[in-house]
From TrEMBL:
Keywords: Glycosyltransferase, Transferase. It comes from Acacia crassicarpa. It is an enzyme of class 2 (transferase). One of its GO terms (molecular function) is quercetin 3-O-glucosyltransferase activity. PROSITE patterns: UDPGT. InterPro entries: UDP_glucos_trans (IPR002213), UDP_glycos_trans_CS (IPR035595). It holds the Pfam family UDPGT. Gene3D superfamilies: Glycogen Phosphorylase B. Its EC number is 2.4.1.-. This is Glycosyltransferase. Belongs to the UDP-glycosyltransferase family.
Length: 482
């Protein structure tokens, strides 16, 4: 919090309603954005869906620090973060992972009515008065609702600027025949402002797929229409990581890179955000040599084909590497709870630990971790860089293909697990695990990721780019409010 961020009248700070997109990879950075803005003097009303609230509270209550209000602990430190929930249009007990299509339909068609009702209530009752609506870029209604209640519209983008830019310039892809061109165009996309030539296979899956009638496509098309009337875009990336892409975007949208948005000090957040009970792996990790453990996780949402999971497991069997593997109960499907090969757990006893969920931040920063086999979700990528852990990339969906390109081709802080768009085999899996984890062959990736960590650290220092960008955002917001 710097001088220039001070608001003219501390009695009337800006009050933002912050609505998190209801998947964990969006809720986690939204929680930390709320804390960051509240530390800058904002009053925040944080809105979670009832479903995410129910799951996180259940996981937290099983692990002893149960809080009905996710922000209670943070508020003890003096921040004004209010907390409320809204229905996403489906019953709390509905299995959103198993019935993803219905979930997305509800977000597209039903959710906005519930949000509108809630925003009306908050606007009517709140002191200080509500000044802005901060909503995830993937929502299809923020500018409509902001306009209706005369609020500023701040869009929160939780992925790299490169991904934003490709969606934003979808019309250029259409014009040049690179839209929905899966497997048919091999030439690079070299005309997106600020984006160096990118192969079509490295674009987000939704831009590649031939069938563009899915509900996810409809959400993306609508969301990127909405974004054109946003007053501000806050992005969880770092100016120095994507300088050209960000500058080019700033010609079109008021785009502020304020990442990495982590819990302060990168310690375990006091706000419980886990969907499943966290296993404590510290003792097991303590028993392992420095940088000897491969951490494996595919994030909170995506499913992995059983055949791929078997190749990974059989590939691990061909190595002698220690590993800690997060296998979510629904990683293949919530109907297949035992996806590993028979006898796998006995075969790796002593060197392999399999758990349903953990505090990833705590695990990654443990000195025993030497590599991260990841689906390349953007939060995982940033957390890995911050922990100086090189990546073994296994992208599965959406922006993960584009993030992989940044990690492997541009920043060289990791390698591919197999052919990024094709099949993986156990032989390839074991070869690449050994390559990343071996002290000699992995050294270049370790040193590259250490350098990149410094860039992130510098961005968060006084006068660092993300701190400055947050100041500019607050300055510009003040001129619009006061
Ligand atoms: N995560 C966690 N424990 C786990 C696995 C994941 O806390 O066992 C967190 C991880 O730290 C990250 C988020 O879940 O913040 C996953 O976000 P990401 O963008 O990497 O992937 P997504 O879940 O959106 O696909």
């Amino acid at each position: 919090f710097t001088e220039s961020m001070a608001f003219p009248n501390p009695q009337h700070p800006p009050h933002a309603i912050l609505i998190a997109y209801p998947t964990l990879g969006h809720v986690i950075p939204s929680v930390h954005l709320a804390i960051k803005l509240a530390s800058c003097g904002f009053v925040i009303t944080f809105v979670n869906t009832q479903s995410i609230h129910h799951q996180t509270s259940k996981a937290a209550s099983n692990s002893s620090h149960h809080k009905d209000d996710l922000f209670a602990a943070v508020r003890d430190s003096g921040l004004d973060i209010r907390y409320t929930t809204v229905s996403d249009g489906l019953p709390v007990a509905f299995d959103r992972s198993l019935h993803h299509e219905e979930f997305m339909q509800s977000l597209l068609h039903v959710f906005s009515a519930h949000v509108e009702e809630l925003v009306a209530k908050i606007v009517k009752e709140s002191v200080p008065p509500v000044t802005c609506l901060i909503a995830d870029t993937f929502f299809v209604w923020p500018s409509m609702i902001a306009k209706k209640f005369d609020l500023l519209h701040v869009s929160f983008w939780t992925e790299p600027a490169l991904v934003f830019s490709l969606y934003y310039h979808m019309d250029l892809l259409r014009k040049n025949g690179h839209f929905a061109c899966q497997d048919t165009r091999k030439d690079s996309v070299d005309y997106i402002p600020g984006v160096k030539a990118i192969h079509p296979k490295d674009m987000m899956s939704y831009l590649q797929e031939k069938d563009i009638s899915t509900v996810c496509h409809q959400i993306i098309f609508k969301a990127f229409k909405e974004i054109r009337s946003a007053d501000f875009v806050l992005c969880n990336s770092i100016q120095e990581l994507e300088p050209h892409t960000i500058s080019a975007l700033q010609a079109h949208v008021p785009f502020f890179a304020v990442g990495p948005i982590f819990p302060s000090g990168f310690i375990k957040s006091t706000v419980p955000t886990s969907l499943w009970l966290e296993s404590d792996c510290t003792q097991w990790l303590d028993s392992k040599p420095h940088a000897s453990v491969l951490y494996i996780s595919f994030g909170s949402t995506v499913h992995v084909a059983k055949s791929d999971l078997l190749e990974i497991a059989n590939g691990l069997l061909l190595t002698h590497v220690n590993f800690l593997w997060v296998l979510r109960p629904d990683v293949v499907s919530s109907e297949d709870q035992h996806p590993l090969p028979d006898g796998f757990e006995e075969a790796v006893r002593g060197r392999g630990m399999i758990i349903p969920w953990c505090s990833q931040i705590e695990v990654l920063t443990h000195p025993a971790i030497g590599g991260f086999l990841s689906h390349c979700g953007w939060n995982s990528t940033l957390e890995s860089i911050w922990s100086e852990v090189p990546l073994l990339c296994f992208p599965l969906l959406t922006d993960q293909f584009t993030n992989r390109k940044l990690v492997v081709d541009d920043w060289r802080i990791g390698i591919n697990l197999g052919d990024p768009c094709g099949m993986i085999s156990k032989e390839e899996v074991s070869k690449n695990i050994n390559r990343l984890m071996d002290e000699k062959s992995g050294a270049e990736f370790k040193s590259a990721v250490r350098e990149m960590k410094k860039i992130l650290e510098n961005a968060l220092m006084t006068n660092g780019s993300s701190v400055k960008n947050m100041e500019y955002f607050v300055r510009d917001l003040k001129t619009k409010i006061f």
